[in-house]
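Subject: sequence -> structure tokens, single chain

Hey, anyone have a minute? Need the predicted structure for the following. Not urgent.
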Amino acid sequence: MSAQFSRAGTVRRAFRSAAGPEAVTVEPLTADGTPPMVVRPKEAGTDLATWAAASKEWVCDTLLEHRALLFRGWPVADAAGFQRFVAAVSDGEPLQYRDRSTPRDEVSQNVYLSTTYPAAERIEPHNEGTYWSTWPQKLFFCCLTAPPVGGETPIIDNRKVIERIPVAVRERLERLGVRYVRNYNSGFGLTWQEGYQTDSREDVDRYAAANGTVTEWLEDDRLRTVQIRPAVRTHPVTGEKLWFNHAGFFHISSRDPQMREALVEALGEDGLPTTTTHGDGSPIADEDVRAINEAYRAGEIAFRWEVGDVMLLDNMTMAHARRPYEGDRKIVVAMTDPVSGGDAAQSGPAVAAEGGEA
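Reply:
Had a minute. Here:
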């Protein structure tokens, strides 16, 4: 189905349906009509998961059209209710969160708290799993506790991000790809046991080999991994070229300057918890990273969370971030509908060659 529709056409088509979509209203959150589209029940108390089960095709079509949906005004009170909705509009089970870059607590099967990170700090825009060989197409958020101040989850359209990045920067990364290097058990960041959710080196090596990742075991139970991934991916349905990587997010220049200096002094450039280069190992210039980060920030769309809100994103199209907050905040997330880039098969030799130089 084409991704190019008019919003009015979508709504008219939905209300002629004999299933569940006639029970909702759909309107843009912002005056200029940019996503997310807000989907509300016409009748208070309508169960979101029950309605969605009768309306799955409509939900998926509307997501493809707009790439971000905000379900508001539904009585979603807990992780179990959220999980029922996730199951109703997904194909297969939610993805497990392995090869982690941040700590997350699992609140129910494959439903996680959003990233555990200091409330006073911002999390920069990113998409889930860009450095994995298989990543989620659908990404779900649910607000169980809304902070009194801040804590928004801005979303950013990657189709516009790629247009804002300077041509030379974009073409260089598209040609060379992104090389991700991570060091575990350095005293900073996650341990490899936390990142891979196992205490077995053999399990880590098996998982890594199956997913196009080179592992290098170092002294003191430290682990270094190297992955090479494309900077641009093709949407599996529409064929659009999308900016889909963590090139700027994991780059050392994206860190606070004082933190950057402390990490480099303590660990050296080769020992940083995370870093990125071009796929051939050449450095990504700090000014290129600034241009990438500015391209994301220029497109942020944010809203205040309300308790019971559920946001559904096309993960390949829409990046997300997190703003600082005060007070309590509880957002749970789930990832479904895996998409494979074939990196385990296609990138193995290149990754192995680079891994030997890391």
